[in-house]
Amino acid sequence: MEKAETVRAADTCLRILERIAFADSPMGVTQVSADVGIAKGAAFKHLRTLIEHGLIVQDPVTSHYALGPKLWLMAQQAPAGASLAELALPLMRATRDELGMAVVLSIPAPRSAFILATVSSNQPIEIGVRPGSELSLHSSAQGKVFLAFGSPELLGTLPDALPQITPKSVTSKAALAAQLDAIRAAGYATAPEESLLGINAVAAPILGSQNQLLGSIGLIASIQHLGAVPTPSQLKALFALTREIGLRVSQ
User: Fold this and answer.
1) How confident is the model at residue 11 (pLDDT cuts 50, 70, 90)?
2) Most buried in the list 10, 190, 236, 240, measured by CB within 10 Å?
3) How far is the C-alpha of 248 from the C-alpha of 250, rounded, in Å?
4) Bigger pLDDT: 148 vs 153
5) How confident is the model at residue 1 (pLDDT cuts 50, 70, 90)?
6) What is the C-alpha separation between 26 and 12, in angstroms, rounded?
7) How far apart are CA 133 and CA 114, in angstroms?
């Protein structure tokens, strides 16, 4: 098998594994193939490979796929100590109770902002994102935080013509670069209706003891409750949350 084909096959297997890991319930081969964007026969072959390695299992009755026991064993080999999510979640819940908004913890990924943990809003109509979701770098508040405070090379990985997620998404790389300068000066990013119409998010970086970027916290709500310009009380709560998480991680 050619090297490029091997890399593509590995990438497909990993994407399938991610879909199964973050799904709300076990998945069938048809759903897997649709989500990953490959033929049903190809999806079946990849699923068989993952089963053979003990990474997923198949229910003999429903034929649906779920995570296997080997992944649990692999997770036990991870370094001991509280994770970023474990430290952040109690603080995120307190901020949710204070503001009523969904609170989201993200970490930087090569091409996205990866959602590590979420706390749902306490409003009658729930607004938020699921753990395991990936948000675009240019049209999400969390992604803009990673572009502004992360590696300078990250902006260069984006195409010159940025995808238009909604009519309000930034599509010019030059305009995005100007936004990033303002984000660095302000210490936070917003993305009003840029990922989904009617929804806004405000995010700020979580910094470690050496000022290194660890992740970001985002507040998510309807544009009615979280305007394009956040209120002083909303920013105060956001900055207090990111500062406290950074302090606890550094202890």
Assistant:
1) confident
2) 190
3) 5
4) 148
5) very low
6) 18
7) 6
